[in-house]
Amino acid sequence: MKIATILGTRPEIIKMAPIIDEISRRGIDQIVLHTGQHYDKEMSETFFDDLEIPAPDYNIHVGSGTHAKQTALMMEGIEEVLLEEKPDIVLVQGDTNAVLAGALVASKMHIAVGHVEAGLRSFDMTMPEEINRIVADGVSTMYFVPTQESAINLLAEGFSRKNLFITGNTVVDACHRHLEIARKRGIQEESLARLDIGNMDNILTLTMHRAENVDIRERVVNIIDALKELTQMNIVFPIHPRTKNTLEKFGLFDELNNLEHVHIIKPIGYLDFLQLTSASTLVLTDSGGLQEEAITLDVPALTLRYNTERPETVTAGGNILVGSNKDAILKYVNMILSDKEFADRMRNAPNPYGMGDSAKSTVDAIEDYYDNGLLDIEAPEDIMSSFTRKMAMIEEDITVADFESKEDALIHMVFDGEKMCFPADDLNLNGMMITYDKRE
Fold first, then answer.
1. Architecture of domain 2-169+356-371
2. How far is 241 from 169, CA to CA, in rounded Å?
3. Which of 280, 335, 349, 359 has CB 3.0 to 4.6 Å from 18, enough for a Cys bridge?
4. Among candidate residues 261, 308, 265, 301, the one with its CA nearest the CA of residue 280
5. Which position among 209, 240, 263, 412 bears the catalytic label?
6. Residue 276 near residue 203, CB atoms below 8 Å
7. In the chain, where does the domain assigned CATH 3.40.50.2000 lie?
């Protein structure tokens, strides 16, 4: 078996590192293709060294550009590599243009696609990421979903539960892996010292880069007005180049940079950033990945968005959506600082993303599919069977697997009277409402 992994951005490299490790550990043939869509070396390429991952086998150096131009260049480069390497499955992670390009190219070449972190939905079609993940899910073969909630999103869209694998999120594996690298290198204490910001009490780590925040003047002004009043915090802001340019265009950069309690710094290495996050009292962010890392590191998160494709972090209690609302930002920062019980609840929120064995579960599933010939994508030879979609209330002790076998059916959705449930093979259906397809 040969596995091809496509990477394009820093979060993809971070989250796929444990899977790349696991594939290597098992001696499976693999190639890694880097699209090179991050033109800033500090924000992408050096990560391979930092995270102790072998350099990519291919880098197609697409650089920056419009969504259409960037995606087209990626598709062209990816196709050339896949034609040469002929992998059995292509892995893509998340919701970037690299994911969209990789999934489309592989599926049209009849190569199985495995989507890591599948099923996330913000239900906001103004987000390019939402479009990317919906399209990638539409053409994938295997879906490695982080939580039951993400799996239910896919079930509601008509995907077969047989192709869904609730693996947890590799962000947990990655945090453990990368903190160990930091400890091994002896940089755990040095990371914070290198920031050279003096007092390290009450750190608020800020990240802000999404267009809906930084490109809309009213929103960014509201956020900065809140930051002005948070003088009790030590705000550390590793600023994205695009965000800096926009703040300068609006005439807001100098105003923010002149605040004594705000420390604007250049983007820092991931291991340093991980140390900064773990030492923080809270994070204020519009990043999806940082919402996951914060709850994994037991750090309260306030998210500068009005929706999130990581709702599990909110439900668990470790994350609160505050949008760009000044009053909400100030309210919850002050509650975290002054209300110990409230802060402890956020810090001790259960992690919805698992215990750190996501990479193992993912590669286990791929090996099982390969061994059973399920990665082969071939034109059908049998005339399509007819199915009837039905709904039923189950009033007997019977598992999902037994019901499907008895009825020659495939269960899609399960409702227990209060919430939707994932139809795992061993789930007892007694007292539940189900929808299912029955073969005629």
1. 3-Layer(aba) Sandwich (3.40)
2. 28
3. 359
4. 301
5. 209
6. yes
7. 2-169+356-371, 187-347
Instruction: State pLDDT tens for residues 406-433.
Output: 999 999 999 999 999 999 999 999 999 9
Contact 142, 163 (CB under 8 A): yes
Strands of the sheet containing 301-303, edge to edge, are 262-265, 234-238, 203-207, 282-285, 301-303, 319-321
For strands 112-116 and 89-93, give the pairing.
parallel
Q: Which helix (H) or strand (E) segment is 164 a member of?
A: strand 164-166
Q: What is the pLDDT of residue 271?
A: 86
Entry pTM:
0.85
The DSSP call for residue 41 is G
Per-residue pLDDT, averaged over 37-55, amounts to 69
Give the three-state DSSP class for 390: strand
Which CATH class, in words, describes the domain spanning 187-347?
alpha beta
pLDDT band at 199 (very low <50, low <70, confident <90, very high): low
Report how far residue 201's alpha carbon sits from residue 395's, in angstroms, rounded to the nearest whole number: 58
Q: Using an 8 Å Cβ cutoff, are 89 and 111 in contact?
A: yes
209 catalytic? Reply is: yes
Average pLDDT over residues 227-254: 93
